[in-house]
Write a sequence for this structure.
């Protein structure tokens, strides 16, 4: 309130300087409120992006940077929403429904699973 007069800032550094706001939340705010191209890395995005070969990283900031290189900028905001839905309905962490998946040809996990038989 003191610094921004009750207006939520859109700048990533200003957002993450606010108490309780991490990078993930800051990017959600930037993308969904301010429509600023931003990549949100949550547990689904991390797991599935690694399976699809978009990144080999574990660190969310590095994953975000890798995704910004491989995804078209106009897909950055939607990617998170799409992957969350995909991660909840098809590519669940414990028991992914690979038999229903349309991404098998791109998935390293699936290829490994097929090799093992
Ligand atoms: S093939 Fe299986 S593990 Fe790979 S993305 Fe699809 S559901 Fe997930």
């Amino acid at each position: 309130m003191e610094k921004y007069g009750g207006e939520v800032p859109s700048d990533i550094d200003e957002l993450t300087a606010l108490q309780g706001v991490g990078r993930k939340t800051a990017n959600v705010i930037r993308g969904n409120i301010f429509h600023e191209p931003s990549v949100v890395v949550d547990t689904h995005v991390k797991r599935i992006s690694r399976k699809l070969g978009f990144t080999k990283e574990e660190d969310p900031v590095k994953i975000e940077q890798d995704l910004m290189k491989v995804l078209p900028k106009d897909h950055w905001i939607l990617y998170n929403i799409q992957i969350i839905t995909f991660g909840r309905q098809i590519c669940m962490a414990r028991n992914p429904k690979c038999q229903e998946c349309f991404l098998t040809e791109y998935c390293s996990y699936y290829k490994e699973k097929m090799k093992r038989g």
Observations:
- The chain is about 50% helix and 0% strand.
- The helical segments are 12-16, 23-32, 43-51, 60-70, 76-89, 108-116.
